[in-house]
Amino acid sequence: MTDDTVYVTQPTLPPLEEFIPYLRQIWDSKRLTNNGPMHQQLECALREYFRVRDVVLFCNGTVAILAALRALNICGEVITTPFSFVATSHAIRWSGLLPTFVDTAPGSFNIDPDLIERAITPDTVALMPVHCYGYPCDTAAIAEIANRHGLKVIYDAAHAFGVEDHGGSLLAHGDLSVLSFHATKVFTTLEGGAVVCHDEEAKRRLMNVRNFGIANETTVLDTGINGKLNEISAAFGLLQLEHVAGFIESRAAISQRYRDLLSGIPGIWVPPPPEVASANHSYFPVLVTPDFPMGRDALYDFMRANGVHPRRYFYPLITEHSMYRDARGATRSNLPNAAVLSDQILCLPIYPELELAVVESIADLITDAARSSRPPNR
């Protein structure tokens, strides 16, 4: 390995000199926030990039989910997955809604549509699936279920920037799709997020919620929130958008190199690439199965001791945190597939500036662990 610690990700920054002209425009305009010109330009640019009707920017992905739920004006239970970042369920709870958990589909990182059907009750008002790691949910099955039962669908698409299925942008599915532009994501505005919507009324409500519910100088229509994205972050996003195709191309090369090196190691399951027209390679997940000579946590510790910091996204399951153990469907016995994922998952370092020589060293480290004579740690 190299002497430098390798983390699971790091932000890729465009050349600083390219950002200076954007900053000069902000300094000249003296507009720092409140739907300024950079904010408007980025919404327009993203709308064109995704080829969707509307994009509404927010200060971060979690506030974007909160706003999406608020804009739908719903009350009751929301069916979601336990295999996600906690923000997914936190937003449901913060909105006064009740999360209901169903298992992931066999061989998938995403929610099982068949189990969604079984979990629906008279109190169910919406579904919140997650396109985990940029792998698309079964959007056709979810749409059919939602239409038949009169449910709203909000996709947590935090991992899905730029992903396209064979019909176009993955963000075109559902009533709303929510993106995160956090510093760890494929595309970043430092902190930020967005909601993709498909009609004028949804856009109006989202914009209203984003700005305290204010309609005009004397009228407040809703208990909104301050969810606006500032001008510097929006400008950074505009510059990132110029480079993101190259970032994704570099991620694709890293992903393929990992596949070439790891696919033959017993006990390391490398999932097939997502079946999409365009992937973003936002993560590189593998499963450490019982055939490996040490358990997932032992491999995790071994790699960290050797200067490589993978992450166990997502361990533990959301349902194993104290605030969700009483939720409907939260028992581990109800979530056998997700439990296996959580116990075996390991996301390896991937970011555009990660050199292929370092990828090869990481694979060598896993190969060394595979040759270990130590007893399994399960």
Features:
single chain, 378 residues, alpha/beta, Aspartate Aminotransferase, domain 2, Aspartate Aminotransferase, domain 1, 2 domains, seven-stranded mixed sheet, three-stranded antiparallel sheet, 11 helices, 16 strands
Characterize this entry briefly.
This protein has 378 residues and is an alpha/beta fold. The protein is built from eleven helices and 16 strands.
The residue ranges in which pLDDT falls below 50 over 5 or more consecutive positions are none
Q: What's the overall geometry?
A: globular
Distance between the termini: 27 Å
CATH second-level architecture of the largest domain = 3-Layer(aba) Sandwich
Classify the fold: give the CATH topology of the largest domain. Aspartate Aminotransferase, domain 2
Strand order of the largest sheet: 2-10-9-6-5-3-4
CATH top level of the largest domain is: Alpha Beta
Question: Would you identify the CATH H-level superfamily of the largest domain?
Answer: Type I PLP-dependent aspartate aminotransferase-like (Major domain)
Radius of gyration: 21 Å
Question: What this model shows, in words?
Answer:
- The protein is α/β, with parallel strands linked by helices.
- It folds into two domains: 218 residues, Type I PLP-dependent aspartate aminotransferase-like (Major domain) (Aspartate Aminotransferase, domain 2), CATH 3.40.640; 127 residues, Aspartate Aminotransferase, domain 1, CATH 3.90.1150.10.
- Strands 2-10-9-6-5-3-4 form a seven-stranded mixed β-sheet, with helices on both faces.
- Strand 11 and strand 12 form a beta hairpin.
- Helix 1 runs antiparallel to helix 8, helix 2 packs parallel to helix 8 and helix 3 packs across helix 7.
- The chain is globular and about 70 Å long.
- 46% of the residues are buried.
